User: Fold this.
Amino acid sequence: DQQVKQNSPSLSVQEGRISILNCDYTNSMFDYFLWYKKYPAEGPTFLISISSIKDKNEDGRFTVFLNKSAKHLSLHIVPSQPGDSAVYFCAAMTSGTYKYIFGTGTRLKVLA
Amino acid sequence: EAGVAQSPRYKIIEKRQSVAFWCNPISGHATLYWYQQILGQGPKLLIQFQNNGVVDDSQLPKDRFSAERLKGVDSTLKIQPAKLEDSAVYLCASSRDKGYYGYTFGSGTRLTVV
Assistant:
């Protein structure tokens, strides 16, 4: 039972354009969401988070949007840079459990 | 601050052999997690410790996997005997609080079972 889904395994975007990575979840009890970035041979690194009391959170070039009614979140990267090329995982948690459920990841390639 | 340390980085073993992985979390981080990431999949939680107590091990295959966190600091994850399907990256992570702002992951141990 995949509670967190990233339906696009890969995405290619031209440098300077917007990258939009999507994530869907099925468990309505999830109330904290994160995005992680992973480079080859490294562990995932935290990128940005959002709690269910918000619908948007920005940090520099990265913005996460949460649509609770659709059980959907997205990560926008503007402008995209070649260094953003990595695998991006979304993760969700129900507060009180203190554990995140991860999606399967989307490989982003930013073309110079 | 120093990151989460894991060793070894790579391990190749034959099926039915045993293997152990080590993790040293960030100093002061009470919560420690072991995740398994199979190629093409997202990380899957195996076990979660709060200090030296197990909080959640519901997805740990207990017939072959074991983990301990002595003195609430570093941790070891063991597989005995290994199966081909155990080939994966084993990630250790730690968090200071209850994980609301994410964890810090180590670089992982890539296990290949042949």
